[in-house]
Amino acid sequence: xxxxxxxxxxxxxxxxxxxxxxxxxxxxxxxxxxxxxxxxxxxxxxxxxxxxxxxxxxxxxxxxxxxxxxxxxxxxxxxxxxxxxxxxxxxxxxxxxxxxxxxxxxxxxxxxxxxxxxxxxxxxxxxxxxxxxxxxxxxxxxxxxxxxxxxxxxxxxxxxxxxxxxxxxxxxxxxxxxxxxxxxxxxxxxxxxxxxxxxxxxxxxxxxxxxxxxxxxxxxxxxxxxxxxxx
Length: 231
Fold this sequence. Notes:
The protein has helices at residues 3-6, 10-23, 30-42, 67-96, 106-117, 124-142, 152-160, 167-185, 192-209. By secondary structure, the protein is mainly alpha-helical.
């Protein structure tokens, strides 16, 4: 008999008990014993399998919220908001106290450009371009007369319909711009004396039309009360 036949399962015990009850005694004949042994060997034993998935790691401890954490969080938010407000106020104060540089008047910038044009007396075309552009830009800015894309004829025609310049100034300006156009477009090359005259004409027009300084008001002395000597 093999070792497996010696192992009895609960099911084989029940079969054994049933057979013993039928025979009427506690012992069985030899033939029945053989049947019992074969029957016990035929009944398989359920293997004991351990479920590995049932073994789990210990869960980490769960942090219990504390009321102090919310307090510190609220204090941090308030501190950040106060810092941002202080930075904003400092930026506003600095912006309000930045010294404002007054813009350079149009006539001052025009005179500076005419002074720079003197370095181009040996080059008639660049000289006339710079001088004529300076005068047009000055008139447009000084009198709010916008005509950046107009030709000389259109510029003078629009200017004639205004009272921005006197008749003598309009005539002088017309001759000045026509002389500059001869050099720029007709390849006329005047000498330095003629270029000096164009420069002087442009400078006179600026000086005649620039804002005049307002003289300061003179303080009138207060009249003194004359007191009569008591006789």
